[in-house]
Amino acid sequence: MPEYTDLERNRYEKILRLRTQGIEPFPAKAKQSHTSAEAAAAFEQAEAAGQTEPVQVTLAGRLRAARPMGKIIFAHIEDRAGRIQLFMRVNDLGAEMMDFFNREFDLGDFVQASGHMFRTRTGEITLHVTEIKMIAKAITPLPAAKDEVVDGQVVRHASLDDAETRYRQRYADLAVNPDVRQLFRTRTAIVRALQAYLDNLDFIEVETPILQPIYGGAAAKPFVTHHNQLKQDLYLRISFELYLKRLIVGGLERVYEIGRDFRNEGVSYKHNPEFTQLEFYMAYADYHDIMKITEEMVAFVAQKVHGSTTITFHDHQIDLTPPWRRLELRQGILETAGIDIAEHPTAESLSATMTARQIKHKPGSTRGKLIDSLLGDFLEPTLIQPTFLYDYPRDISPLAKSKPGDPLTVERFEGYVGGMELCNAFSELNDPLDQEARFLEMGRDYNADDEEKHPMDEDYLRALNYGMPPTGGFGMGVDRLTMLLTGKHSIREVLLFPHLRKSDEE
Q: 154 and 195 share a domain?
């Protein structure tokens, strides 16, 4: 027998006792004619129509509360639609069954109950039980407990408040916290709204490889694995970008993908090693066109799932209604850090100025990385209301098209909301000669062990040589959008199973 606690051992022994009586505590099949909400709705409809014939139902769910009161028992079960009260009495079930319920059933068990619906004197719609059976015995009790007043009586219910335990035992978190279950229903609604918006613009949803022979499309360190039969290393994708743009070359002019990316980098309140991303690519568009689609799409999703384009995040009331503010990156850094990056065309010059101003930075960084650090330290925290920062350094944007007449700057924007980067987009570089030069340049500017170097992708260059039309591309973290629309301040809250360090118990 596993190392059970005394309470778990007691429940385990109930399983053995039930089986000796010929009762299987884990039957192969259960019945459920209605959800709790459907049963209540059917009763209300019959009640409104003056129907005298009882509404007969069979419900199934987890036993969440039980109050034995002599010859009657009030209980609550919970299913995917909510919670509903059960009423049991000795006149209907018999003394033996009532004793059996009190002795063998525990909070957390899954039960099946049949009977008819009625309304109690206090007005609560309730199932009058004529038959009840166990359909799955819970050995481990639901976590903790809290008191709740029901019909004037104090009833103990399971709860789970410790964040670390909630993330490590998400199954328990979901079982006892209905608001967490609702959060993940909202996440699903967000994804469906994104799909609906793009589908309506004649985009098609596609799937691209997760295991890739060459990683690319972003500045990140990949996870590496090995294919034994092919005898080659493969990489978990860090982005969909290069494969989606291959599809643009092939004539699929509007494509998107929602799926997992993997980056072997730090973990924080807004980073997880695997995360869900939306990327879309649109032929005959540039980054200005993509800005318009972005603000309209996010507002559409907010309205669809939140009922409003006004949300609250970190105690800030944020209005997602288009149009969003446009702010040139150079101007934003000048306003917040007091440095005009246009006056520093080299990394050495910018580094010297940052040193003189006692601004911490990593020695030997490229100009683009220095600008990125100024953005993160000074500008990003100020971007509470939706803002598009645009025109970025070329050396941290190897796949973006240069601005005409300015070889150091590319047509790229990032969208910020609530002091957090939400999305990244640009006018795609479609010149194969320039793209090859960028790949080579990245190899020179970054050390061999730099985790953000971008490898040469010969096949992608081959695709560009067939010709790619002017294209606007976009990427957004679905997890961050979910954080924003649900008011959560940690990415762990919106991931069903976030990555965590090993605990002492593991």
A: no
